[in-house]
Amino acid sequence: MSSESLTIRSADGLEFDAYVSRPKTEHRPVVVVIQEIFGVNKVMRDIADWVAEQGFIAIVPDLFHRQEKGIQLTDQTEAEWARAFELYKGFNEDLGVDDLKATVATTRKLDGSNGKTGTMGFCLGGKLAYLMSTRSDADANVGYYGVGIENNISESPKHPLLLHIAEADEHVSPEAQKKIKAALKNNNHVEIHVYPGQDHAFARVGGEHYNKEAAELAHNRTLEFFKKHIG
């Protein structure tokens, strides 16, 4: 496995960086790992490295570049939480999706790629993964505890989508979860798994709500999903 940096050009002409982690084998599918509100930090890079260990090329684009490039926060201090929420409030989802679409377009031509690309997002990224299933040509999309999906539920997924929902998510109410499940239950593109008793970010290693068993179950389901849809 090896890592490198990649520069991507947005549709409106801006350049932003992405962390790339590669498996040892060539001609592999790509998974775009979509950040939480803490930027492209060690947690996201470690996830990318794990994805690469499973045989995929992993790319983590810097989606906060329009506000500040190179953001790397943790969830360990109040000051970092405050900055993360500030960035989240200032984030433009539509432009974020545009930047992800530019990332996917770049992956199609990336050295070592077989042309297939999926997305895998967490928290903010989980919502963006949902939007990628409705607005982009990404081949498969996975959202972990996406926040705010219920606000865009009128947008119907057109490509395979896997959602991991934390039953006790402090940021996604039971009403919001009910709305999401009801709207998507008849969509053949969508697969939903609910994790009983789990709170938001149960797959964030080192986080307050991390649960190893639930995280491993979700990750195994994600791998099966990607192997089915992007190889």
Q: Secondary-structure element order, as H and E?
A: EEEHEHHEHEEHEH
Estimated helix fraction: 25-40%
Q: Uncertain spans, ≥5 residues at pLDDT below 50?
A: none
The number of domains:
1
Q: Report the average pLDDT across residues.
A: 97
Top CATH class: Alpha Beta
- Global shape: globular
Distance between the termini: 19 Å
Q: Which architecture would the CATH scheme give at its second level?
A: 3-Layer(aba) Sandwich
Number of helices, where a helix is a run of at least 4 consecutive DSSP H or I residues = 6
The class by helix and strand makeup works out as: alpha/beta
For the biggest β-sheet, the strand order reads 1-2-4-3-5-6-7-8
Kindly report the name of the CATH homologous superfamily: Alpha/Beta hydrolase fold, catalytic domain
Q: What's the alpha carbon Rg, rounded to whole Å?
A: 16 Å
Major beta-sheet overview: 8 strands, mixed
CATH topology: Rossmann fold
- The beta-strand count equals 8
Q: How big a fraction of the residues is strand?
A: 15-25%
Characterization of the model:
- Helix 3 crosses helix 4.
- The radius of gyration is 16 Å and the shape is globular.
- The chain has an eight-stranded mixed β-sheet with strand order 1-2-4-3-5-6-7-8, with helices on both faces.
- It has one domain (2-229): 3-Layer(aba) Sandwich (Rossmann fold), CATH 3.40.50.
- The chain has helices spanning 42-53, 78-89, 93-108, 124-135, 174-184, 212-229; strands spanning 2-9, 15-22, 28-34, 57-61, 113-122, 140-144, 161-166, 190-195.
- The longest helix has 18 residues, at 212-229.
- With 231 residues, the protein is α/β, with parallel strands linked by helices.
